[in-house]
Amino acid sequence: MNRIAWRSSVWRYTAMYTVLVLVIISLLAGATWWQAIRALQHQQEQTIARELAQFRELSEDISLSDFQRAVYDRMRLFRRVMIAWESPDGMVGNLNALPESVQPWPQVSRFIIFSPSLIDHSRLREVIGSRIDTRYGPVVLAIDSSELDRVAARAKQAVALAMIGAILLASIFGFILSRRLFRRIDSINRITQEIEDGKLSARLPVNPQGDELDYLSDRVNHMLNRIDDTMHSIRHVTDSIAHDLRTPLARLRLRLENLLIEQPEDSPLGDELEITLAELDQILATFQAILELSRLEQGASHRHFETLSMRELWQDVIELAEPQAEEKQQTIALNDNDDFQIDGDRSLLFRLCYNLLDNAIKYSPEKSAIDITINRHAWSIADQGSGIPDEEKQKVFRRLYRIDSSRTLPGYGLGLSLAQAVARLHGTEIELTDNHPGLKVTITFPAQH
User: Fold this and answer.
1) Among 76, 328, 351, 432, which is disulfide-ready with 393 (CB 3.0 to 4.6 Å)?
2) Mean pLDDT per 10-residue interval, the chain, length 449 residues
3) How would DSSP label each residue in 228-252?
4) Cα torsion at 300, 302, 306, 310 (round to 10°)?
5) What span, in angstroms and rounded, lies between the C-alpha atoms of 374 and 321?
6) pLDDT score for 382
7) Would you say 116 and 82 are in contact if contact means Cβ atoms under 8 Å apart?
8) Among residues 405, 375, 401, which one has the least CA distance to residue 389?
9) 382 pairs with which residues across the strands?
10) In whole angstroms, what is the distance from residue 441 CA to residue 449 CA?
11) How far is CA 325 from the centre of its chain?
């Protein structure tokens, strides 16, 4: 993965936790805002109640003129407090009328007033106040609530900005976390792909922090070590058997060949000896292929690389395999309109191409067509045989593995193993796909500079 997987579990979990944190922050901020506004409102209500109570007490203790003086003093002292007193001589205060919607004390209500004498230029204003009856007439006291409204609006704005900041921070954190995690996953995917391609010596990276991915990578590495050891043991046993038996079998073949020479032409034993020699040659060829496969898997053929033309190589391969195809009345067509050159070992690539063409001839019916196409940095060979089931396409590259439908034909299941080893030695892979009917084998080589 070379890009951020926006639908990945990392982003889902990040989004889920972000939403959860935002909900918690919203609830806490909303509760805090509501408590703060309620505290300010309660403070205003307490101020109104205290002032009105003082006016009632003053009306009981002082004269009318002193009460009027007290009303003016309160107006000068509290600039945002509005007072309306309906005195026996008329209205006194900074309100020219008593609003009818004002609730009597101790109830507090909001109402609209018209006052051109307030601090700012607004004539209509929403205030919070109450009314009380005194000995010298009713008194209405109100406090401008615009300041409280501004505080509430600023608090809402602050909460909104905090939410936006939290979303941005959570997104940035999720992006950074995803990038770091995806880099590690990319590394694991790349190495597992190498392991899948047959490089069993590759190991997953284990970082010092020792998190769950490191623990998983460590366990996978232990498993790969066990598999690698087992594979090495199997290959060592196979190679040892092939190496140790090749010499005595070669001696046995020499004795049988000498015995065949000594037999008269019409001897029935001679026919049996020829059949035995043919079988023995197949066994020796199998052992030789096993040893050659081991050398290829160890990369022992790099020193023989040279620049090769795929068109010329395939022409030589077809020339060698054509007699075999003619026996089954098969046609081999080479479409080489886009030839290319690669650096490789000619003998190994010849062996690779011949093995695949030999399989196509062997498993295709009589009078069928085999098409070889050379494209840009790639070539393919398509036959009209029985093909290979999807579940068997990877298994056929194993040593000595044969599918059930091919067990009646000559061979020991090493041709595709050798072909794959040669392909990997040249930095490419063999791709098997369906030809409908038949099998299509494609090899794409890296571009040469």
Assistant:
1) 432
2) 54 74 78 79 79 80 82 73 78 71 76 57 68 82 74 77 78 75 80 73 78 81 80 66 71 79 75 78 68 61 75 91 90 85 85 88 89 88 86 76 60 72 82 88 79
3) HHHHHHHHHHHHHHHHHHHHHHHHH
4) 80
5) 18
6) 92
7) no
8) 405
9) 371, 440
10) 25
11) 49
Tell me the C-alpha distance between 99 and 89, whole Å: 18
DSSP 368-413: -EEEEEEETTEEEEE--S----GGGTTGGGSTT---GGGTTSS--S
Residue type, position 244, single letter: D
- Strand 439-444 and strand 109-114: pairing? unpaired
109 backbone dihedrals φ, ψ, rounded to 5°: -140, 165
Token code pair at residue 144: 């401008």
Give the pLDDT score at 295.
64
Sign of CA dihedral 375, 378, 379, 382: negative
Angstrom CA distances, 2 to 5, 100, 186, 195, 217, stand at 9, 73, 7, 20, 20
Q: Pick from 409, 413, 415, 412: which is nearest to 364 by CA?
A: 409
Q: What is the pTM of this model?
A: 0.48
Structure tokens at 4: 């951020």
- 3-state class of 63 per DSSP? coil
Q: Which long-range contacts (CB under 8 A, 24 or more apart) does 263-272 make?
A: none
For the packed helices 268-297 and 212-262, what is the interaxial angle rounded to 10 degrees? 150
Nearest to 1 by CA among 170, 159, 179, 194: 179
Question: Which pLDDT does position 1 carry in this prediction?
Answer: 43
Cβ atoms 366, 383 nearer than 8 A: no
